[in-house]
Amino acid sequence: MPFITLLFAIDLILTGIVGYQVTGAQSPTALIPAAIGLLLLVCGVISFKANLRKHAMHGAAVIGLLGIVGTASVFSDLGVILEGKIDTLARPAASVSRLITAMICIHFVLICMWSFIEARMARTAKPAA
φ and ψ at 49, to 5 degrees? Predict the structure, then answer.
């Protein structure tokens, strides 16, 4: 799971940097996905220590959840985006960046949940010594 966290962190960092460049480097808020990615990167690096893995991965999952909550407003624009009328939005680049961030965070949190369930099942399947 630490390696997967690093991959998602890199995805978010690239989303933030590309979004910032596409918007002409006018608004530092375009770097919010990169900030989320940096937090995930820190959790991913910390989780390579076996004794800190559980706490770091739970922290990463919380960061992913906060990423979903922070980008949830983009789902009101989803219909317009899917219809291909993105140029009618007030800030189309921001909407696309938020949508990409939301999708990455949702995917990450789902993988975290799956990993947590597998870890719990593995612990309970071990015979008592």
Answer: -85, 120
